[in-house]
Amino acid sequence: MKTLTHYTAVLLTFFCSLNANAHEGIFFVKTVTNNADIYYMPDDENPSNVVRLTTHAGIDNHPDVYIMSTPPYDTVVVWSTDRDGNFELYMGTLPDLEATATRLTTNNYPDRHPHFSANGTKIIYTAKYNFEPSTVCPKDECSIPVSAPCGWYEGIRILSLNNMTIVDLDFRNMTITGGGTWPNLFSTWVGHPCFSQNESKLLFSAALDEAGSDWEVYSVDFTSPNILSNLTQITLGSLYPANPNPIPMSAGATFIDNDTRILYSSTRTPLGNSLLFSIPATSVAAPVSPLNQLTWHYGNDYVPEQLTNGTILYTSDLGPNNICPPPDTGATDDLDLWFINPNGTGWQNLTDNDLNNEQQLIGDEVSWFCGVKPNLSECTVFPKAWNICWFREVMQMAQSPTYLPDFPHRSLYPIFYNTVCNYIYQHDPLYYQQLQQALLTYEVPCTHSWMDVPSWWIIPSMFEKWDHNLPASPALILPPNKSTINNAPILHTWTLLEEAQTYGIEIDDDPSFQTPVVQLSGLLTPQYNGSLPNGLYYWRASATNTYGTTWSTVWYFTVDITTGIETLNTEAAKEMKLNLQPNPFSNETTIQLSLPQNDAVKLSVYNVEGKLVQQLLQQNLAAGVHQIRWNAQHLAAGKYLCRLETAGNSLTKKIIITK
Predict the structure, then answer these.
(1) What is the pLDDT of residues 209-225, one digit of tens each?
(2) Which of 116, 139, 449, 613 is most exposed by smallest CB count within 10 Å?
(3) 370 and 503 in one domain?
């Protein structure tokens, strides 16, 4: 049987539900002291129990797992590694991957993103076997290793393990349902391909421009060995405001829910960070939308996969923002494995540690100067710190065409050096002058490679030096995301920021905010109280000081005041009561409350830690019996508290939600 897998550039995760003779658990890649290897977690209930599976000094990544359903019931792993100097595919079996490691590809060009077919007889992967002369070096060449000269592009290959033959998939001139025609060129970028469970479809991400600057998700019908039809563009653009990420990327897609839905990550978000989305598998040119959004925060979530129990496993750098200051959103430099429910609830950090042993996405995905991917903002072009010898190497490669002419990515270094110098000069001309002087007068010889030069003089990170005067991006508080509001006016609140002088808010029925229903600036406190007609609304908040303005992410809520509460009778009840029927429940329940007199009523739901989850009601009600139909589909299974408050009394009932 085919197991479910998860793969990213550096942190890869896999969950397997296997037969008794097979290895079950989570497979992932962890980087320790700059060495990326494959690791194995037998039991996600005990994440501290981790076994190292590969020990080679090279970079091992992108593993995928297949469990043989017939004897010898081997657990087979395929992965990409540069242990032979370039990234090639290797395959081995547990328990000893190193002893059984066999090289599958030998073309000396990067082969990456391997993924087994459901029956384990084929491996689909990407390879830079296409050379097409380019007019410009691709923007993401820094994040993908290509051989000089610039012009090696990535395509899809399928390796048949039965006879070890390789076929290339050629999309040139194919009509794209929802997206025109595939260019008659090989200068396109393709990444992270996978099979559907019945192997009749392929899913992949691609950028059709040679600069690799605009990625979307595609599917194609597939008949072995290489017959393609019905090429479809699954995603197209975004409903959000203008994207702040210079490389808008909808990518890392996989089939879920028995091939009925597609799960993917996208940087087409309000802050430009990579978050998770889920759409029907039948979608055509579907824009990134908050209605399809699963994760909502200021970190980056990468290439997700669904577990056999329906839970989604993915990699996230969510944590303290210690890489880029606002308005950049690089989050933390520690990657962790996370769980989430298919409806976007129930976040759980599986490998919650701040040891930075699951490092940022570098290695074969991002070269040593590119920083965090895919959030390729100005900030993430630069490393967090560097030594002076490293910087001198960059300067030499930028200014002397004869210096290391065959070094990988050679043509990018002048661009990179100029970008860094311009950024420094604009922010601090004196610091730039000091740096240039240091490059010329530093006396300790840089006789080693840039990786092991003396490290005692470290130039501080530019992220800590500049841009920190901008306000942080506000975090939204109320009303809760995806909530239904049954009262008026509606209180909107967000975080109070010391560095902010004024605040603003936009509310609209369109997430692009082209014609906001509410548009206010110059607010002295981070809140707004106002009424809205029934309907679906999107909102975001801003923080402003003399250095500029930053925006929050986007949340949405539904106003349903007229139908939110039903009055059964207006006769005075004998006492105040609160009941839920049914309870326990899965998605919906009816909350009934009795009031002995006219009163100001507040009805709220809290988690067991006392944190407000959703405010259901806040308005004046007449004496009598009232009921509210409450949909709790957005909440994870567990225990909650429903609290009814009036001017002089309160009642609390325990809620049990099952899924």
Answers:
(1) 776 778 999 999 999 88
(2) 449
(3) no
